[in-house]
């Protein structure tokens, strides 16, 4: 299952690139999640090129949602303040946003993911 990551719109330029680079340096994310740049909106012929403002990753048995959340939390911990909010969007449209203090947020997200997986 591929998920999309986006950084809050008010974040400084380069935060998306920083998150992408961080995920590419994380051995599990790089090897099993295969981070890629994608456009959040379809390419329009009247515009030059697309806007690549979404990172996609594969979640599977080798790279779990928990590992992804941990990698994002570690990246956010290295940013100023609490770091910019990061939204994870699932193929079914469900979104989870990491914001605020990292430890509390990751615990909440793991609980939500566990609830979602139980259906």
From TrEMBL:
<dbReference type="Pfam" id="PF19953">
    <property type="entry name" value="EACC1"/>
</dbReference>
<dbReference type="InterPro" id="IPR045428">
    <property type="entry name" value="EACC1"/>
</dbReference>
<protein>
    <submittedName>
        <fullName>Uncharacterized protein</fullName>
    </submittedName>
</protein>
């Amino acid at each position: 299952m591929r998920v999309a990551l986006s950084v809050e719109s008010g974040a400084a330029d380069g935060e998306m690139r920083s998150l992408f680079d961080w995920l590419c340096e994380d051995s599990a994310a790089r090897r099993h999640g295969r981070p890629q740049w994608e456009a959040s909106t379809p390419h329009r012929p009247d515009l030059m090129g697309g806007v690549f403002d979404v990172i996609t990753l594969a979640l599977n048995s080798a790279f779990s949602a928990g590992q992804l959340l941990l990698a994002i939390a570690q990246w956010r911990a290295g940013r100023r303040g609490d770091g910019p909010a990061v939204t994870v969007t699932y193929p079914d449209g469900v979104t989870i946003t990491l914001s605020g203090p990292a430890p509390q947020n990751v615990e909440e997200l793991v609980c939500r993911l566990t609830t979602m997986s139980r259906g």
